[in-house]
Amino acid sequence: MEPTLPDNQTETLHQDQHAPVLTFPEPRSMTLSIRASALVFEDPSSRQLLDHVERIAPSDATVLIIGETGTGKELIARHIHALSARHNKPFGALNCAALTESLIESELFGHEKGAFTGAVGAKDGWFETSNGGTLFLDEVGDLPLGMQAKLLRVLQEREVVRVGARRATPIDVRVIAATNVNLEEAVEAGRFRADLYYRFNVANVQLIPLRERPGDILPLTRHFMGIYGKRLGYTEARLAPEAERTLLDYDWPGNIRELENAIHRALLICPGDVLRSSDFKLSGLKPQISTPASSTLSTISTSSLENAVKALCEQSPPKLFELIEETIIRTAFDYCEQNQVQTARLLDISRNVLRHRLTIYGMLLGKQQIKPQEPAINLYTQHTGFSARNSEEGYCEHY
Asked: Which CDD domains does its entry note (predicted)?
């Protein structure tokens, strides 16, 4: 994605409730993305969020946006840029989790010709192409520890060194970082540098999941019905009263993006102009307050797991812990369809740790299985994502 200049990012809903709406300049081009393509600020908690964003936007402070997938982190970042003095300068957006560890340094900082195999020419990194403007770094919680150290130096020194270069290039970039990971827990677990967390967390924006701002659900629904209804040739699509209740009662684990997909799918299969509850194929309803029945179910599930582990203990197979760990990782990896990012999130470990374990157990294509390390070193690697030797090399790297 090339750096872009925001254009017409805010508009007003011309319906019963005049709630401000944030959208991408070309929302149709975002329909295949996993990100939220619109934000509505009708719910009181959303209005407070918008007020907070508009207070911090004019400054040059680094911003950390925290929120679940699909809550609109990039939209908020673009709105902050649009309200700042840098609004006429480039806006760059980079998903840190979408790049391999070997590519992310070149993408962020650029490289010189011949710096590595395939570097047939010099290339500007994202910091340079966003110079004077704003750089949005999504999913920073998935950055490898070595890259975190280099990024911290760039933020402190305000200069970058391209891969293969010897001279630093000064930069003037406002950084907005985003994550769906609890960075405080990641810091405690050794998966994220505390100094980088403090550098990011100058101004904090906590995005509220859709289930906790029900006042935004129906305005967003009408917004998406207007967009997709026009594309599909509807003169005027409406929601049946029971369909409204269905949407309000649903938990929306995928947040705004899931709502948009649900509206699009319902309009595709709806036989008329009125969307009914049966037109929405939702995975479940909003969880209710815990009941004895649900508590019993949780106990039964835990008991089943404990019984399986006890059965293995009775058999006393060699390397029992490695057997259990490999089974958990393999099952989660298969469940996530070999998606490393999703698997790391499901297991609540960093992607770097996951890749190391996948390599140990021979689950990465093209990677030879490696011998597990000794227990003490293995425990350190599990919590930090790299060995003690790599740690020393990381701190000795010179910019």
From this structure: AAA (cd00009)
